[in-house]
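Predict structure. Chain length: 470.
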Amino acid sequence: MRFILLIDGMTHSLNEPSDIKKQDIFSLIFAFVILLLSIYLPPSYGLTRNSQIMIGILIMAAMLWITEPIPLPATGILIMILQPMLGLIPADKVFSSFGNQAVFFLIGAFIIAGAIEKQGLHRRIALGFLKRFENNPRIFTFGIIFSSALLSFIIPGHGVAALFLPIITSILLAMRVIPKESNFGKISMLSVAYGSSIGSLGTLVGGARNPLTVGILSNHGINISFMQWMIYAVPIVLIAIPVVWFLLQIVFPIEVLDISLAKKKIEEQLAAQGSINRDEVKTAGILLFTIILWFLFSNSDFGLAGIALLGSFLLFLTKCISWKDVEQRLPWGIILMYGGAITLGVGLEETGAGGWIAQTMLTFMRGNLFFIILGIILVTVILTNVMSNTGAVAVLLPIGISLAYELPSISPLLASMLIALSGGFAFMFIIATPANAIAYSSGYLSMRDLLKAGVFANIACVIIIYTIAL
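Prediction complete.
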């Protein structure tokens, strides 16, 4: 499994070259036409020249992140280039965004996740979880969604989906489950996708959009510890997992009665793992030590990033991971995209574009608190289903924070958490998240199955987060 699969919200376009298609050319031309119009048209509707151009950059970036005619990180680079080039923000201020500690937290977390993957510790944990849910078919599918969610607390969610795919596929093959016909097969694969997506909300390690949120909030003087994030997020995860699992049972009634072959296959794979080795023990110990420090000291001067990098250093020191492993596994593209997202937020704030968008939204919603909260959640869920999770959160966070500053009844923290957590509800389309694409690639479900289940899962999760927010 390539570690690139561990990246939150990334699809095919991070590294791979591909032929230029007509729709890609059209998307690029249309995006740059929007930018040129924002530059050369006279400002209107109370906008300044700089704020109008910044909105043009925002629309251009959103279009490029949705249509992906160029790699997602390349759009992040473009955002950083355009702002000083067009005289919006000095270059020093643009590139100082990489000094944000959340960037280094992300690097440290990826190194730790890479060590877990290298040692095979994640596979041992996954099989150990599944072994405890072998009683009947329904309980087994709950075991899949629960195990993938829980593992997503310590490994980026889409890496968990990539891990579970071969395990669940081998079990379904042993049971001779018919692809695209068996509801048991459909629920099993959807549980992999949905469990890893929901679970990725639980901690800052689960997905890149989580530290992105922390980073943008820190620019506004709001700091969130590892524990505080979990206090906000884990209740939503614990409610959403059984609710979504129950909905899957209704949408796809299970026809399988006997899962003795599944039990046998899990035992075979556990036996093949052998006894735990010294490197696995060291990696597990360092992971546990790092998590304890995150709980106890992430709000201290040491910070989240310092603890993540300390954990990474200990992994190097104990030879659990090498620098060559890091070069092969660390997704530098997400760091560049992250930098672009941070500078996008800075630009919207500095030029006043974020405030203008917030005022426009307030006028449209007539300042109604309930409509505004529901609007934030719905817009995020819709956008995250048609583009990268990280891209959706990057586009919406600056707007949500500006909206909060204009409305005293909503804090910037609440607006940001609504966007960050709703950004994980990408259930309906393959393009929404790699977890969906990974599950679909198994051949056990169709696009229609994904859409059918995703609509119900999205509605349920919107209701859950809206109710908790109120």
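Summary: The chain has 22 helices and no strands.
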